[in-house]
């Protein structure tokens, strides 16, 4: 009986060994381990055995069953792994083919520039104010120390709607409006981005519509060195930490003293090149200390309050920063232009 | 203002600096130098030659054969200039000379005759054509007789001069004169200034006996001075003066005209020379013109005047338009012998009105408009008389006949060192302030830190304390200002809720695949009426148009952003960019007045334009053209993110496809539309199938619910049921959905349309809509009975309202 079991074992193991599919393997399992299989058959004849032999053969039979079952499981795992491998091989794709496109949009370059500047000034404690694009002559000119007949009104030929209404020529009226609206004449610390309009024929450097950002800080003891410090922060943030600024005297009716701010030319590092017209400096914005007349008209006592103001053109900043060569690009909305500046 | 550095050197020493260094110093201290140019490109080896003889070339009619003494030798030169003559002193480029444009002069044979050099015109020496005196414009330049042969032409003609161009701001009219620039440079460099000495030999004859002056318009003509100059010999002005004028951009004419121009540039004071014998009387009367009065100005144009214009008259008729241009009748000419010289102060705005009305902007009108220095008016007249006697052989009569009510007083401005330092953030000492005032040549009285400054009349821009802050700051140097940050109150700064929300919406739409545009607010009259949302249209009484547009294209303020966006889309289509997905947030301008007199309402709108393919993935054969539901899907997702409930109603709106347009409502309020552009309009814009939306953005900001809240995540399973209903094809799915939601009760959490079918197996005129219903109770597991009850209630209600049947 012992020999019979051992023969069955080697016979089964050989069949397991040669099995090449899961079905074949299942056949072996049913044939040898099933209820009608030869091992069961052998065990049925155990009654004839002596009491000493019975446990020995029983143990041997269980061992044989175990060995066959283990061999079958092992073989099964092998076949399954082989099959999976084959399947995976068949499932291979060409990963170099292009993916399914995702629609991608983005902000306009002017929005990116404006928001970058907004965020910088928010960090310095400024608020953002907005104002109407159709302005009264009073807020656009008079409240900014530009009375009727003032020669400086020539500098900015305007789009009038009626004698008293015009498209604002700068965002400066928002200064006056904000100060006027301030109850108890508290300090004002704001910037105002927005669209402005001037009677210019559209060409590479002129646009009848463009963008401006106005800044204003009015408080007790505001110093011109504060203006210089804030503008320096701005210049380094927008154009790089290694940029230098310089202020040079200029004239605006609503500030006194008035200055223009230049940054050192990035192209030549201040040595002089064609971009900076060989001066080493590039003009960025106008600024100054708020004119006492402007403070007075807005209800602030110029003996108690002082302030600084600045105004800049995001188009110009974008043109310098990204080398945009024609201001009309900002308003044609050519997707080939817009998409260059879609970024996170 | 063009400043000749050679001229400037007569007043201040600038030799210690290169032109570039000087320009930099001037720019940093107050006046922007916009350019540094050489007067002429460099020439070498060009000298004065004496034409000893000049004969016809034996083989050429138009050429002359000249023997020219150039000092050390006599050269045979062939010259084609029509004005060449024996006895002239001319500019000779010797063999080996290099003229501007790298033009090298060599010995050559012309028609068989040897020529050893070239006799030059001013243009050939690099002078711009427009500055060359007329008599030399088409020939060679002739030097004064006393010029020495062999002398270097570069120096004689001032060809090595450097011209710096000043960009003057309106407040710095003081620098519209060489003396003003000299004061500025003297202050910046801290060097002494040399002023011209004006003195006159007194004649026996007195001007008063020859002319009277009466000013009727005293408020606009506070000073009028008349000088009488006799026996003038008209001729060329001295070479040095012609050189300076050309360098400053003025073409020399004759000595009288040149002298008035020279003094204009030197003093900043315009003068006018009348031919005394053609003046028409012995009295000068200054008055406002009569309405319709006429004058022929010296450009030979007849001008019709109004009562706004100030005129100089001879008591009968106008002889000059004050400060702008003289009359033709009394113009100085070659035959003039006696001159009435006017030095006057005319009101800037009055001059401006006339120069603007007749488009006659000149060096003179420009200076009057900006305001001349009261203290230089008479002095400039004296200076001109002195030069006339010196360079035009004239006799200047004694005295000046004048009307004088001019205010010569100097403005006093008090400054304190501490206040200046407070304003600038500096720590400048009293001594430095005093030093700065001295450099500026400002008179002042000092008492400790208090300075009472008398602003010189040439600096009309200095009126208030802040003006002096600027003077101190710029001479102290802006480079020396410290960098500080504001010390005052520490307000937080930041975006308002609406500003933050606007950014959220932008980022959302960009994430959804849309590119932001910025279009013009000014559009054409025609386009301004297109694609206006109904609720906007209802509020428009009139469009807002420019009084004087530059073009019809940009004449009217927009009431919809879409037309200009369609223009931009068409621009892309024309350049093979067929897939466009745009959005823009911007203002529209709505006036509720018949005739615009108040500021229009500026309303923010959110607009979008979509055309072409929404998705293209060629190798997987995936293609999704933009359609109505792409556009609507974007809006639905946006509104969901803003937690705004919006309903869509089929609508007919001008400019949109009548069957593919929905009007949007938040509650009962109309807030915009989404739809396809009408095919006719698509064609007009050269667009293919295009979808647009336009939404009241102000209202979205107003009603959005952005309060953070937490909805419990359900712990109990949901149950779903599908229901396919057959209804008339005209019944909108949205209406059925609304009834299902209502009838289904509170357990229905979501309803989705998953199929719409029409055709085979369905009766003509019917359609089937299939919905998935999702039931859920956050507190417990639902029972079949509850769901079934709701389901039956729905069936009953849709049957009642739409005659809907379950699809078999
Ligand atoms: Zn450079």
UniProtKB/TrEMBL annotation, chain A:
Example GO BP: phenylalanyl-tRNA aminoacylation
Keyword Aminoacyl-tRNA synthetase part of the UniProt annotation: yes
Keywords assigned: Aminoacyl-tRNA synthetase, ATP-binding, Cytoplasm, Ligase, Magnesium, Metal-binding, Nucleotide-binding, Protein biosynthesis
Catalytic activity as recorded in UniProt: tRNA(Phe) + L-phenylalanine + ATP = L-phenylalanyl-tRNA(Phe) + AMP + diphosphate + H(+)
UniProt-annotated binding residues for Mg(2+): 256
Cofactor(s), names only, from the UniProt record: Mg(2+)
Name used for this protein in its record: Phenylalanine--tRNA ligase alpha subunit
UniProtKB/TrEMBL annotation, chain B:
Biological process annotations from GO: phenylalanyl-tRNA aminoacylation
Cofactor note: Binds 2 magnesium ions per tetramer.
The protein's Enzyme Commission number: 6.1.1.20
Positions of Mg(2+) binding: 461, 467, 470-471
PROSITE patterns: B5, FDX_ACB, TRBD
Main localisation: cytoplasm
Annotated TRNA-binding domain residues: 40-154
Claim: Magnesium is one of the keywords in the record: yes
Catalytic reaction list: tRNA(Phe) + L-phenylalanine + ATP = L-phenylalanyl-tRNA(Phe) + AMP + diphosphate + H(+)
GO molecular function: ATP binding; catalytic activity, acting on a protein; magnesium ion binding; phenylalanine-tRNA ligase activity; transferase activity; tRNA binding
Requisite cofactors: Mg(2+)
Enzyme class: ligase
A GO CC term assigned to this protein in UniProt: phenylalanine-tRNA ligase complex
B5 domain boundaries: 408-483
Family matches, as PANTHER family: PHENYLALANINE--TRNA LIGASE BETA SUBUNIT, PHENYLALANYL-TRNA SYNTHETASE BETA CHAIN AND LEUCINE-RICH REPEAT-CONTAINING PROTEIN 47
HAMAP family assigned: Phe_tRNA_synth_beta1
Name this polypeptide is given: Phenylalanine--tRNA ligase beta subunit
